[in-house]
Write a structure and sequence with these properties.
The protein is α/β, with parallel strands linked by helices. Helix content is 37%, strand content 16%. Helix 2 (58-67) links the parallel strand 3 and strand 4. The two termini are 33 Å apart. Bound molecules: alpha-D-galactopyranose (GLA). Alpha-D-galactopyranose is lined by residues 1, 111, 159, 206, 238, 240, 268, 321.
Amino acid sequence: MTLSRPTRRAAIGGGLFLAACSRAPDQATAAPVVDVPLRSLAHFPIGCAVMTGRLTEPAFTTPLIRHFSQLTPEWEMKMEYICGDDGALRFEAPDAIAAFARSHGLRLHGHTLVWYANAPKAFAELDQRRASFTEAYRNYITNVVTRYRDVAPGWDVVNEPIEDDDTGRLRQSLWSQRLGDTDHIRRALDHAREADPKAVLFINDYNLELYPKKRAAFLSLAETLLKAGAPLGGLGTQTHLAADLPAGAMATCIKDLASLGLALHVSEMDVSVAWAKGLSRRAAETRQAEIYAEAMSAFAALPARQRYAFTLWGLRDADSWQRKDQPKDTPLLFDDAGAPKPAFAAVAEAMRNAG
Ligand code: GLA
C-alpha cells in the first residue's frame, strides 16, 4: 500500500523465557511485559520486514534473531530496487538479506515480483510488441526466483491486484495493460513456478478486512486462477490496520480468506495508533493489543497446512514506514528502544492460548 492512506497485556508465565522486562511509561500499574521469544511459542514461522541498513546493528539483529524465524525484504526486493532504467538487474541488497537469513537459519519471504506501483522504465519503454514484453517479464521473474530458491519457500508473485475501494475491480497497471487483467497474474505465477517447482506462490493485498467487496474480489480472483490451473498456493493479507478497526473484523477476514483451503500469510501486520479515529491514545493502544491478539488467535486456529507465516511489518516502532506520515505513531510490537510493548504480550498470550 502507499504511504498516503488515511483509511486507515498480560505477563507471560514461565520463568524459562524470562530474559528482559520493560514497562511502558504510561503503563505504570500494568504488569511488566516478559520478553519471551515469539518464535518459541509458534508452530509456524514468525516473520519480520527488514532493510539491509539495520542488519549490521546489534540492537536490531539481536531481538530480530531472538523472536523471528522469517524475513521479508521491506523494499529492497522490489522491481524498483532490482530493475535499473536500462534493464540491468542489481541484487546487492536482496543478496545481503538472503545471506543474513541463510547464516541465521531463517526463511526468506520473496516480496515482491509484480506490483502495479513499480513499472520500471526498462519495461515501460519496451516496444509494444507483446513478444519482447512477455519475454522480458518471464526473464525477470525466473531470474529473481531462481536466485533465492534455496532460502525462499514462498513469493508474493503479484502484490495488490485489486483496486483499493469497495468496487471489487482488478487493478490497472502497466502489467495488466500489456498482458491482460488476469493473464499477467496467471503468467507471473507460471513463470515463478517454472523457476521454483516447490515455492508457495501468493497474491497479496491490503484492506481486505475493511472492504468486503475487495475481499470477495480477491477470493474470486484466486478461484479464477485456480480454475485456470494456475499454480497459486497462498493468499497474503497485508493487515496494515488502524486501531479503530472494529472487534471481530480481523477474525472474520482470516476465516473467510482461509475458506479456499490455500496457505495464508498475515504478511505485513502493523496497527497504527495515530490513524485511529475517535479514540484516546490510551484507548487506541489498548485496542492495538486486542487487534494483534485477535489476528494471532484467528491465524493460530487455522489448520497447520494453511499457516504459512505471521509477519510484522517491522521490528521497533522507530523502524516503521508509518513514521513517515505519522512521526509519533507506535504501530509495532517493540518500542523505539526495542523493548516489548503490551501489544507484544497480547500476541504472546494469544500464541500460548492457541497451544
Ligand atoms: C505495501 C507493500 C509493501 C510496502 C508497504 C509500505 O504494503 O506491499 O511492500 O511498500 O506497502 O511499506
